[in-house]
Amino acid sequence: MLNRDAKILYKMEDHSLLMAITALVGGLGLKQVWDIIKKKMDINANKEARTDGFQIQVIEQLKEKIGDLEKKIDSLITENTHLREKLARMEERLLINAKKKVNRRNNATK
Hints:
- This protein has helices spanning about 1-30, 30-110.
- It is mainly α.
- Helix 1 (about 1-30) crosses helix 2.
- About 0% of the residues are buried.
C-alpha cells in the first residue's frame, strides 16, 4: 500500500513538474527557461567545487595531524624503551645491593 502511494505521489510530482516547465516555457520562452536552468546548474557546480575544495583542505589537515601523531608515537616508544632499560639497571643495582647486605649480615653472624 505504501509503495503504491509513493508511486502515485511520484507520478503527481512528475506531472506537476511537467506542468510547471510547460507554463514557464509558454510564459518566458525557451531561451529564458534555459538560462534559468543553466544558472541553477552553475550554482550547484560552484557549491560542489567549494565543497570539494573544503574537503581537500580538511583531508590535508588530517594527514598533517596523523603525521604529527605518528612522530609523537615513535618518540614515546623510544622514550619508553630507554625508561625500561633504565628501570632494568636500577632493579639490577637493587638486587646486587640486597645480596651484598645479606652477605654482610651472614658474615657478621658467623
